[in-house]
Design brief:
Elements (H helix, E strand, L loop, with lengths): L7 E5 L7 E5 L4 H20 L15 E4 L5 E4 L4 E4 L1 H8 L9 E6 L4 E5 L5 E8 L2 E9 L9 E4 L4 E4 L5 E5 L2 E3 L3
């Protein structure tokens, strides 16, 4: 029999037999390792999960009509958004000064996609917000000659675009649903 820190102990049974049971162990190290792994898994697992708030609706009830300032930027204090439109106007007209004296029509759908167009644009641009930027997700061609006096309306599952002739088109972040 070894002392309390040793690896071997022998026991005799109560009847005094010489039958001995030898137990080999290292004082709780195996059990400590198992308990450590269990607690580590319990602590790490919640840290890896992400809190998700479901059924979020990002939709704006009405469009914003935003005048472009002399620097090419628009600001909407109601929805706390501002951005520079010069790249958008350049994409549409290949003219970096085309923004002057214009206004942007902007609306956000339930999923958080931003739809933008302006008078005489041929396209509606669909953007996603990502770390302080609006990233172009889809460019939807609407008219070969340009949209006259466009307006956006929020609908349950789509954004409605109306032109000066009351033509209506349904838009999603994936594209056009119908034609003008």
């Amino acid at each position: 029999m070894k002392d309390s820190s040793g690896a071997n102990k022998s026991y005799t049974n109560n009847s005094g037999d010489s039958n001995q049971f030898i137990i080999h162990y290292k004082k709780g190290t195996f059990m400590r390792k198992i308990l450590f792994l269990i607690f580590a898994c319990l602590l790490i697992n919640p840290a890896c999960s992400t809190l998700t708030l479901e059924s979020a609706n990002f939709a704006w009830p009405v469009e914003s009509v935003l005048p472009v300032n002399e620097d090419g930027s628009v600001t909407d204090s109601r929805y706390s958004i501002d951005f520079n439109t010069i790249p958008l106007f350049y994409e549409e007209f290949q003219d970096s000064t085309a923004y002057m004296g214009k206004e942007i029509r902007l609306i956000c759908d339930q999923k958080g996609y931003y739809y933008m167009t302006a008078n005489e644009f041929k396209n509606v641009y669909v953007f996603q917000a990502e770390e302080g930027e609006l990233i172009l997700d889809k460019k939807i061609e609407i008219s070969e000659t340009g949209i006259v006096r466009p307006a956006f309306n929020q609908r349950d599952t789509f954004i409605e675009l109306i032109d000066a002739n009351s033509n209506r088109i349904n838009l999603t972040n994936e594209g056009m649903k119908g034609e003008l």
